[in-house]
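Hey,

The postdoc asked me to send both predictions to you directly instead of through the lab channel. I've kept everything plain text so nothing gets mangled by the mail client. Protein one:
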Amino acid sequence: MTGALRIVLLLIPMLIGACNNVARLPEYELAGSTMGTTYDVKLVAPSDSLAKDELQRQIDETLERLENLASTYRKQSQLSLFNASQSTDWTAVSAELCNVIERALQISQLTDGAFDITVGPLVNLWGFGPEGDIQQPPEPEKIASALSRVGYERLQTDCSTPALRKDNSDLYVDLSGWAKGYAVDELAMLLDAASVTDYLIEVGGELRMLGHNAEGLRWAVAIEKPLASSREPQTILRVTDTSVATSGDYRNYFEFEGRHYSHTIDARTGRPVSHALAAVTVIEHSAAFADGMATALLVLGPKSGPELAEKLNLAAYFLVRSTSGIEEISTTLFDTMRTK
């Protein structure tokens, strides 16, 4: 299990059939790099009084703070230091890191471990972490050894202190299935505080939108077909005042002896998912929650994933490979949003 891939597309006006005779409002864009990917913030008709250069600085500072908080690629991040510690005593951490981990663990509990932020040893073993790529599957003994270090139940939080504690010294926490969504949420709070009323935020494919686009319409988001060789829309949504996150198995993978090995690792088995579910999109107010839940539903597969999403009343959309092509499965709440 790793973070959602950048597989949600923003469609240009021509592609979504915008009318040429509709006067477009001015649009301002702030962009840059973060978390090994890019971010893009679109502001529609921003106030003349908005200090855009200052907003850009605040965005970059926010994203830098989050990388120093939770990146496993930075050895001095708070999370990396916690991972490196061999102590099983309570370890003091910032309130922010404690709260982030506590919220992520709630998704683990909701999904019976399909989303597990302690999956890092397996992610690294399969070549999808900071330790680099591999060319073939690891040996079963190594998988079993890494799996013995995994289990969200072994990680405890006390955010009144705030502090974290791991039951075994080599527990390794990986927030990549949550961090990009959390970054989107943090940037949304920043824009809201600046009284920006119409915006779209994208960090590595995770989205948050408010108000309207430059044509005065709800924001248009295309969900990709699960194709590794091209980028084509499967369906188009019109949404606002919400977040959209997608997880899929077709952008980050390796092949060995004719078999496809996805970057999405099931922490319960120690192996990449191998079922027919190719992608999951979740629409939810919190981008972090949508990010983590999309990953969990992808792990759960084409039967258990939709069942849990319906039980939790989530707006979720599933793309499943079949002999006849791609089958769409959607929850009741998602269908309601799609028809608006």
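Protein two:
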Amino acid sequence: MMGAMVIGAIGATAGAIAAGGAAAWGWPIEVKRRQKRELLRRVRGTLCLTYDDGPSPDVDGATTGALLDLLRERGARATFFLKGCAIPGAEAVVDRIAGEEHEIGSHSRDHRHAWRVSPGASRRDLERGAQDAARWAGERQLVRPPYGKWSVSGMRWMERAGHTPAWWTIDGGDTHEPRPDPARAAEALAAAGGGVVLLHDFDQGDAHRRFILEATTAALDVAERLGLAVRTMGEVLGVAAAPHQGAETAA
């Protein structure tokens, strides 16, 4: 399976780099670079919408709920990378994400930057986030490291656990200051002929929510115009999604 090949490349690349005496930080950077090159190849002709740091609360006007409404209207599926600390109190929102056949991955528990904390602290943050998301994402998950950074410790944990790293190719810019035009990601998508778009479904007020909805709409419009397939991250990487285990069936 192609997803297994992506993970398997970690061990092969690691051995080659370690043999060459690369620095500890050079190893994860090079592995990520190689995986992103493969991702760029795989995502041609495809739009993959991904949303980090949610879920936002189950209240009127919340970003995740408004986004799910839009995706349902457009008949599009996306991949949501959950932050573990955001899940308590929002389990019904995650049930809705899964129940509407979107894909769920993990994004750590507390969003620790792997290069600004100890390797052990970063690995534990990833591990706990995967535990938090396991009810919906299964035992083997798509994992997106916070800030797109990981350590040797985090890489090895992911490989041992059978998780698949999930990067992006187009940054939607919603966390930038100032924010760009919401259509910028769609323009990059059209120029590249496909891509994995990074956006965030946490709540930062009305302006952020409008940006997310406009950016998503623009990307879907480009996909429709250019005939791009709208696929989940797991479909792009060849990793099977976990079955939904919502409130009714979770242990």
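Summary for protein two, as requested: The CA atoms of residues 115 and 149 lie 7 Å apart.

Thanks,
C.
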